Each structure stands twice: as structure tokens, then as C-alpha cells.
């Protein structure tokens, strides 16, 4: 939004200066070219604040990182150590930018943009409950901002090769901003890490829980004296880890971009998780020590919001001890609200679009992604039109308005979309049977509405409303009536833990083998699962696999849009159920997608 406002301001000033130039020359006619040039120079925005920025790309139209719009026309762009272009960058990638900022720090010129994927390798296990997977012994966590490039989490299979851009959390796991499936032709894998527990006698060190054996590796760019603890390295291997040990073929010491000149007034912007927390005034983010003081400004919270494990963005200047003194901290709140439907209005100056009658705010932290036929990589608010099918995730701000963290355009206005049903997930603010309100949207139910409880059990309308109260977390699907009211086809009670995929239950790992084992209750219940995909193997209606994950049904399994006789290889299904301890999904409901 700041980019748009600045451009409009520049246009107004240019016209005003042009008018003054004409007036000083006596009106019309051809004025001197030099006068026009001088006026253009006078309104050019100065970019004189040196900046080092590390963060995730949220949108384009310039490269937007940490809320700043960076012009990349003359940038040197590096992608995994190779010269690249902006076309090789996408939403969710963590990049490092060196450049210069405008006085208000809303815009910048990027001299260099560097993208280095953190992990590239083969998926070893998948956790359908917590929406995590493991590559090279590293646990990859996904959340509402993870950009799966051209696919969904449920389509991942054990054995898939992936590229991951991520940031480390307080437990040593990786929170993925970007995940891409690779074709599998290149067998080389890598992980970027900091050397810890270096053992020169055994030629080993650790990267998280993974032990790196470099006894046969080629060492590149090592300082005089060789490898030492604390060095950041890229570890390459052509084999999967065995018993937690990765046999490296190459260790390359990576030099950080040169931002060490503390005398140039350099500004620093960083994004990441608080991994070390001493107090609200001293903590660590993305490997950088941070200090706050009485002048630190907070957005979406205050100093009391700071704690171990939360994601934030920090802007400031380093002191003589290389500690980042925070001038501003943006607190990244979870996107617990979800809305899906058609755009009803767009107000670019106000920074809002309207969905289901509610004005949704966007800002320079909002992620934009276009899945429509337009596939607009530079999608921004002013590209949306009435009728566009969108899906957004966000949260309620302190003033009661909704801020979108991520907006995905699913279809362009006038296009049909495979799933055009309206969807709304959020907290109930008021109840008056047969209606209730979520996010200022009134939901009307009837005897036609299908009601579900927390365990996917069917409820009557009376039972559902007896469990409904203020702040109950609910998901509804439906359509609009002729008057624009939301008519619920389905209403489901949800657990707030399902709002975030950062689930601490790690017991849902599955090897994807499809081995159903014993279908009895002795397997235990590990957590709720929603799995969408295509049946790829089929033993019977009570035993099959979806995207490589074993599924079993029972007499209590409910079917929608069909029954068990419709199940077969190639059929698309949406499954709700529980992940058993042996990694098999026990289906409570199966919706057949025709």
C-alpha cells in the first residue's frame, strides 16, 4: 500500500511542478528539456539508508520483504549460489537483501538479493496430524503461511524430493515458508546449518539431531586452520542418512554478505522465531541477539506479547557489540480465521476488500498468491476485481477489524472454480438459535444443515446449539441466499488447536507404506486428520490408500455424495478421521468428489 501511495504522491507532485515550469516560461509552447529533467530529479525519492534485511518474500510488484518494497531492476540476484533473476524467486522464500532505504523506510533499492534453500532432499516420514514431515533428519513444520508451490500438503508422499526454505524455531525444527516438489533427476541433497559439536578426530559435527560425517567430503572455503564450531556451512550428500548419520560428499563454508561496516549507519531488518528468551528486553531471533528499550515501537501487540517461540519482525540498528537495538517490532499473530468466497468490493486507498459483507484489511505484511488462470506473480490488492474467488487467513485486530495474513486468488471473476462453496472458520460472537455470528457474518441454519461435533459425530440442531457459546471455534460451509444471507449447509465444531499446524503431538508419523495392519482399536488414537486426494491403491472398500497413506473404514464410517461402492482407484475423496498409532487413518467420514 505504501508503494501505491508513494507513486500517486509522486505523480501529483510531478504534475504540479510541470505546471509551475510552464507558468514561469509564460505558458504553452515547448519548454526546455533541461527544466523537465531538473524537476524529475527534484522529486526522486532519496535512497540513502544502508539496509541489510533477512526475511520472507510476501508479495511482488517489487520484491516485498519485512514490509518494504524493494526495487530489483538493477539487483544482483543469487539463487543457491548461481546468478539468477527475479523470476526464480517466489512467495515464502527467505532471502537476504543488501541495499538502501527511503527516509520513511517504506521503499528501498536492492543492490543484491540472495536466496539459499535450507534443505533439499527426500521425505522420510510424514505427520498428517501436525502437518509436518522429515527430510535429512530435520523436522519441517508447516503453517498457514507455508507456500506449497503448485500442490497441497496432503499430496506429499514419502520418497518425494523437495526443496524447502525455512526458519529454525526454538526446538531446532524448521518452519517452512516455501516447499517445492522436485523431479528427482538430481540425486544430490543438501542441508544448510551451523557447525556444532565439532569432533575433528572423528571428522564429524552435528546439525540439529543429525550427525554429519565429513571423513570423505571435499572441504571448500574453510578458513585457515580448518572447520570450527559456529561456521555456517552447506552440507551435500548423495545418500540418505543412516541411523542419524549423513555421509557428506562436500562441506562448503558460506560467507555472509558483507554488512559488517558499523560506521555507515546501517539498518537491519530480520524476521524469525524467538529462539532464546531471557526477558522482553533481551532475546534472540534468527541467530541475532536483540535488545529492546523504552522507545521500541510495537505493532500487533506490546512487550508483554514477547515470549519464546513466537514469530516476529524486528527493525533497528546494531550497537558496538553487534546486538540489534529494536526500533520497531511486528508481532506475527496466528491466522486463526479463514474465509472463502467471492470478492464483493475493493477499496485500494483504504487497503480493504470485502468478503461476505465484511471489510478485510491488508497491509505490507500480507502474503498474496494467485492460483487462478491469470497466475499473476505480482498479485496485489489493486489486481482484485468483484467476483474473484479468494481464500484468506487472518486474525481480528485490537480494534475489531480483520487483517489478512494471506490471500489466495482461486479463480478470476467469471471463471468457474472446482470448489465454489463458501467457507468460514472463526470464533462465535453471539448465538440466537437458529442463527449465530462469526466475524460479523450471520450464519442461518435449518433442519437441512448437517451438524458435526468435535469427533465428527452427527448432531441434531438442538444438540449443536446446546454446545454453542461465545468464543466457540466453528467451521461452516454454505451459500448465499437471494438477500445475501449466509445459509449453512454444514456446521462443525472445531478444536482451536486445528487452527495452527504447529501441533506438539509428534506421534502421528507415518512411513506411508499403506500397511493397514490390524484394524482393531488396539492401535490407539493419535489425533484428528483431514486428508484430501486420490485413491491410489484399493484392496477393498474397508482398506485402501490415498496419496500413499493407508485408510480403513468401518460400519460407522459416514459417506457423502456416494457410498462405499463408489470407492475405487482414481476416485477423488476428502477424508476425516483419526490417525492410529500404526500410521493408518481410521475414517469417520468420506466425501466423494465427483
Describe the structure.
The chain has 594 residues and is mostly beta strands. The chain has six domains: 44 residues; 63 residues, OB fold (Dihydrolipoamide Acetyltransferase, E2P) (Beta Barrel); 65 residues, OB fold (Dihydrolipoamide Acetyltransferase, E2P); 70 residues, OB fold (Dihydrolipoamide Acetyltransferase, E2P) (Beta Barrel); 161 residues, Copper binding periplasmic protein CusF (OB fold (Dihydrolipoamide Acetyltransferase, E2P)); 85 residues, OB fold (Dihydrolipoamide Acetyltransferase, E2P) (Beta Barrel). The chain has three helices and 47 strands. Strands 1, 2, 3, 4, 5, 6, 7, 22, 23, 24, 25, 26 and 27 form a 13-stranded mixed beta sheet that branches. α1 packs antiparallel against α2. The two termini are 41 Å apart. The N terminus is likely disordered.
Amino acid at each position: 500500500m505504501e508503494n501505491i501511495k508513494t507513486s500517486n504522491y509522486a505523480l501529483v507532485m510531478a504534475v504540479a511542478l510541470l505546471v509551475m515550469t510552464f507558468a514561469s516560461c509564460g505558458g504553452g509552447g515547448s519548454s526546455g528539456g533541461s527544466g523537465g529533467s531538473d524537476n524529475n530529479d527534484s522529486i526522486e525519492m532519496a535512497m540513502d539508508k544502508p539496509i541489510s534485511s533477512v526475511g520472507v518474500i510476501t508479495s511482488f510488484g517489487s520484491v516485498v520483504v519485512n514490509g518494504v518494497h524493494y526495487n530489483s531492476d538493477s539487483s544482483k540476484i543469487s539463487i543457491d549460489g548461481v546468478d539468477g533473476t527475479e523470476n526464480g524467486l517466489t512467495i515464502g522464500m527467505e532471502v537476504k537483501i543488501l541495499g538502501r532505504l527511503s527516509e520513511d523506510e517504506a521503499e528501498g533499492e536492492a543492490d543484491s538479493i540472495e536466496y539459499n534453500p535450507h534443505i533439499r532432499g527426500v521425505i522420510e516420514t510424514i505427520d498428517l496430524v501436525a502437518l509436518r514431515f522429515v527430510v535429512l533428519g530435520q523436522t519441517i513444520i508447516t503453517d498457514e503461511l507455508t507456500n506449497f508451490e503448485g500442490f497441497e500438503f496432503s499430496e506429499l508422499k514419502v520418497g518425494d524430493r523437495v526443496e524447502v526454505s525455512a526458519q529454525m524455531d526454538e526446538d531446532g525444527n524448521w518452519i517452512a515458508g516455501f516447499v517445492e516438489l522436485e523431479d528427482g533427476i538430481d540425486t544430490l541433497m543438501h542441508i544448510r546449518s551451523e557447525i556444532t559439536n565439532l569432533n575433528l578426530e572423528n571428522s564429524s559435527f552435528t546439525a540439529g539431531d543429525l550427525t554429519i560425517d565429513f571423513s570423505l567430503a571435499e572441504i571448500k572455503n574453510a578458513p585457515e586452520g580448518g572447520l570450527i564450531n559456529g561456521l555456517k556451512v552447506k552440507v551435500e550428500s548423495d545418500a540418505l542418512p543412516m541411523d542419524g548419520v549423513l555421509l557428506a560428499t562436500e562441506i562448503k563454508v558460506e560467507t555472509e554478505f558483507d554488512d559488517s561496516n558499523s560506521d555507515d549507519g546501517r539498518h537491519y531488518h530480520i524476521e524469525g522465531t524467538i529462539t532464546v528468551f531471557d526477558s522482553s528486553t533481551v532475546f534472540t531471533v534468527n541467530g541475532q541477539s536483540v535488545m529492546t528499550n523504552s522507545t521500541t515501537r510495537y505493532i500487533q501487540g506490546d512487550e508483554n506479547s514477547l515470549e519464546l517461540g513466537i514469530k516476529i519482525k524486528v527493525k533497528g540498528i546494531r550497537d558496538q557489540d553487534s546486538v540489534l537495538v529494536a526500533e520497531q517490532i511486528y508481532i506475527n499473530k496466528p491466522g486463526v480465521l479463514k474465509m472463502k468466497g467471492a470478492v464483493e468490493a475493493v477499496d485500494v486507498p483504504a487497503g480493504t476488500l470485502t468478503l461476505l459483507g465484511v471489510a478485510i484489511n491488508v497491509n505490507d505484511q500480507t502474503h498474496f498468491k494467485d492460483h487462478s488462470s491469470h497466475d499473476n506473480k505480482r498479485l496485489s490488492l489493486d489486481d482484485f476485481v468483484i467476483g474473484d474467488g479468494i481464500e484468506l487467513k487472518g486474525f481480528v485486530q485490537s480494534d475489531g477489524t480483520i487483517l489478512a495474513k494471506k490471500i489466495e486468488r482461486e479463480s478470476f471473476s467469471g471463471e468457474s472454480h472446482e470448489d465454489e462453496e463458501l467457507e468460514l472458520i472463526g470464533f462465535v460472537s453471539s448465538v440466537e438459535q437458529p442463527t449465530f455470528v462469526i466475524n460479523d457474518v450471520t450464519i442461518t441454519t435449518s433442519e437441512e444443515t448437517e451438524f458435526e461435533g468435535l469427533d465428527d459425530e452427527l448432531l441434531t440442531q438442538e444438540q449443536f446449539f446446546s454446545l454453542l457459546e461465545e468464543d466457540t471455534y466453528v467451521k461452516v460451509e454454505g451459500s448465499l441466499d437471494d438477500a445475501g444471507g449466509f445459509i449453512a449447509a454444514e456446521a462443525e465444531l472445531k478444536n482451536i488447536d486445528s487452527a495452527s499446524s504447529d501441533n506438539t503431538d509428534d506421534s502421528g508419523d507415518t512411513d506411508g507404506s499403506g500397511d493397514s495392519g490390524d484394524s482393531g482399536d488396539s492401535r490407539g488414537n493419535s489425533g484428528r486428520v483431514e486428508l484430501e486426494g486420490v485413491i491410489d491403491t484399493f484392496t477393498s472398500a474397508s482398506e485402501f490408500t490415498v496419496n500413499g497413506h493407508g485408510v480403513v473404514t468401518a460400519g460407522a464410517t459416514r459417506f457423502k455424495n456416494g457410498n462405499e461402492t463408489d470407492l475405487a482407484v482414481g476416485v477423488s475423496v476428502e477424508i476425516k478421521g483419526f490417525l492410529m498409532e500404526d500410521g493408518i487413518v481410521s475414517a469417520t467420514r468420506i466425501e466423494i468428489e465427483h
